[in-house]
Write a structure and sequence with these properties.
This protein is of the alpha+beta class. The chain folds into 2 domains: 28 residues; 153 residues, Immunoglobulin-like, CATH 2.60.40. The chain has 3 helices and 10 strands; from the N terminus they run αβαββββββββαβ. The strands form 2 sheets. The protein has an 8-stranded antiparallel beta sheet. A two-stranded antiparallel ribbon has the order 7-8. The longest helix is centred in the N-terminal third of the chain and has 59 residues. The N and C termini lie far apart (94 Å).
């Protein structure tokens, strides 16, 4: 009897010890699961942060590339066969960087680049960008910085006096501007630097045809443009 009584506490103690062991195992498992959950949550948070940063970078740097083709005038006059341009626009956030490369144009000639409202005459509102000069192989390359995106526009809230710098005909400076609401320009056009260069290239027949599309308003005719795009949906509009 005494042996039985003596054995009871021992068995109870053993049962208690086993229960404690199981409880400790459950605690350890719970602790391990908590740690694992925390690690997974941290990894998910890190992945979300990286994804957000990557998405932000992707939206901040937009780009597009497109060709410039022979102008309507060049096609009509059957000149500049094989001539073309390649344009790349990269958004830098506040501004865009535009690289223009010209190929197969007359050698050693100056050309003038404009951002224009429509690709064909009479072109609409036009913004002078700068010059490109071809080498002996008829190749030229230039880079421009500015606003070349869906936000490119010209506006004149009112009519005011304007400086008259160039007075020679046929395109003297205007002394005032007309008032007009915001007008977007999404096309590019390239003009011969002189009427003589355009005639030498066979783009005006025997005539000397002057246009106002250079710094002193005595350029030749349009050589290349983005006329392959819709008149109201030029390639600059792609940059959001």
């Amino acid at each position: 009897m005494l042996g039985i009584l003596a054995a009871i506490p021992s068995e109870a103690a053993g049962a208690h010890t086993k229960g404690d062991t199981r409880h400790m195992v459950r605690q350890r498992k719970g602790t391990t699961m908590n740690r694992t959950t925390k690690r997974v949550l941290l990894m998910l948070c890190a992945a979300l942060v990286i994804a957000a940063l990557t998405a932000g970078t992707a939206f901040a740097v937009d780009s597009t590339s497109f060709r410039m083709v022979r102008s309507s005038n060049a096609v009509t006059n059957d000149c500049l066969e094989g001539a073309n341009g390649h344009v790349t626009i990269n958004s830098l956030g506040p501004v865009e960087a535009v690289s223009v490369e010209l190929n197969n144009l007359p050698p050693n000639r100056e050309f003038d680049l404009f951002v224009i409202q429509q690709p064909n005459a009479p072109f609409g509102a036009s913004w002078y960008q700068g010059d490109l000069v071809t080498d002996a192989n008829g190749h030229a390359k230039q880079r421009f910085l500015g606003r070349f995106s869906i936000e490119t526009f010209t506006v004149a809230p009112g009519s005011v006096a304007a400086p008259v710098v160039h007075e020679d005909p046929p395109f003297p400076d205007a002394s005032t501007n007309p008032a007009f609401a915001p007008v977007h320009q999404y096309h590019l056009g390239l003009w011969f630097g002189t009427a003589g260069a355009a005639r030498a290239a066979g783009c005006t027949g025997d005539a000397l045809v002057s246009t106002p599309f250079n710094g002193v308003h005595n350029a030749g005719v349009q050589a290349l443009s983005t006329r392959q795009f819709d008149a109201l949906n030029g390639p600059l509009r792609q940059i959001q």
